[in-house]
Design goal:
About 45% of the residues lie in helices and about 15% in strands. It has about 250 residues and is an alpha/beta fold. Strands 1-2-3-4-5-6-7-8 form an eight-stranded parallel barrel, surrounded by five helices. Helix 2 links the parallel strand 2 and strand 3. Helix 1 packs across helix 12 and helix 5 packs across helix 7. The model has no long low-confidence stretch (mean pLDDT about 95). 2-phosphoglycolic acid binds next to strand 8.
């Protein structure tokens, strides 16, 4: 069971899927199926859809968020988007350092750290993603990689600010592969990450911090993952793209 200190949080990460029209249809279908979720629910949508989804979700507890942002307030950064821009469009949280950003677009933890600080300054909840590759797991480097990514991505963030941060543990080998970490494997890494947070930011910050698991979550494994004491939520890619399927996962997480 999730610790009573931490409310469950399930986020659908649409990645580069759905036009504005498709996003509105999806949001309406999700609200029809799941209007009163008992856990926190978020949709991390493409930038172009944030405004429309925020409008469609108005008055509901479901949050809209972005999948990335730049670390500067504004400037000559062609093709980038700022915290203030996504906030104005309606975003309340932002995914940072997703493995696709790290691996395909060369983002390192120092960049993720600057983004996290900017997100906090703007009043957005950063959801900072970390996770090891298959090779790092095979060579027993998981603990070292997770420690490094956590400490570097959250460097300089105060214990007080940690209350407005969430972490997503997403083993790279599990993302989009159909091979999820088992609930037992994920629990080990979540508990490990929480220990790192305890030792760096103190007991209270660690107890309140929500750590989400991501990587091939489906309706079939959502409840058993959420049953683990240190798994406080889920970050779901492929299985969140269908509103009915996503609603079934939300309902399995009660
Ligand atoms: P997946 O993606 O659920 O499709 O594995 C998870 C993610 O990338 O956040």
């Amino acid at each position: 069971m999730t610790d009573p200190n931490r409310k469950g949080f399930v986020i659908g990460n649409w990645k580069m899927y759905k036009t504005v029209a498709a996003s509105i249809d999806y949001t309406r279908a999700l609200l029809d199926a799941c209007s009163q979720p008992v856990i926190d629910v978020g949709l991390a949508v493409p930038f172009t859809a944030i405004l429309a989804v925020a409008e469609a979700l108005e008055g509901t507890p479901i949050l809209v968020g972005a999948q990335n942002m730049h670390d500067s307030k504004e400037g000559a950064f062609t093709g980038e988007i700022s915290a203030g821009m996504i906030l104005e469009a309606g975003a309340r949280f932002v995914l940072l350092g997703h493995s696709e950003r790290r691996n395909l677009f060369g983002e390192d933890s120092a960049f993720v750290n600057r983004k996290a600080k900017m997100a906090l300054e703007a009043g957005l909840l950063p959801v900072v993603c970390i996770g090891e590759t298959a090779i790092q797991r095979e060579t027993h480097e998981t603990a070292e990689v997770l420690t490094r990514q956590l400490l570097e991505s959250l460097d300089g963030i105060t214990p007080e600010q940690m209350r407005r941060v969430a972490i997503a543990y997403e083993p790279v080998w599990a993302i989009g592969t159909g091979v999820s970490a088992t609930p037992e494997q994920a629990q080990v890494e979540h508990a490990f990450c929480r220990q790192v947070v305890y030792s760096k930011w103190g007991r209270e910050a660690g107890q309140k911090l929500r750590i989400l698991y991501g990587g091939s979550v489906k309706v079939q494994n959502a409840a058993s993952l959420m049953a683990k004491p240190d798994i406080d939520g889920l970050l779901i890619g492929g299985a969140s793209l269908d509103p009915k399927g996503f609603c079934e996962i939300i309902q399995a997480c009660k």
